[in-house]
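REVIEWER CHECKLIST
Item 1: Sequence provided? yes
Item 2: Single chain? yes
Item 3: Sequence as submitted:
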Amino acid sequence: MLENLEEIELDTLLNKMKEIKTDGSRMLQICATKIGEKYEILYTFGKGYEVRHVKISIEPGTHIPSITDIFEGAYLYENEMHDLFGISIDGMNHDYKGGLYRTAVEAPLA
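Item 4: Structure as written out by the authors:
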């Protein structure tokens, strides 16, 4: 069990990201995984020696908003989620359109 884990609804994602950025935290990573028929996306942030996690769960086919306007480095993680899991991310600043990874099959982890 992760410490400092907050599960949120998709419709609050951008507001939560803005709140975390305003707090002075930096993005450490974004990790997607498939659990049963859903996807879990874990956003991890750090401030000083404190680490916090924000998690959303989505159904296949759900579009999520990009957080690259808030945390610019998120574009690599977002492209990875798209290429490997087939997760649709709207509004990415740097969208490789499925070309970040070369895979034998489209979205091999979907």
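Item 5: Key structural point noted by reviewer: The first helix runs from residue 13 to 22.
Item 6: Recommendation: ____
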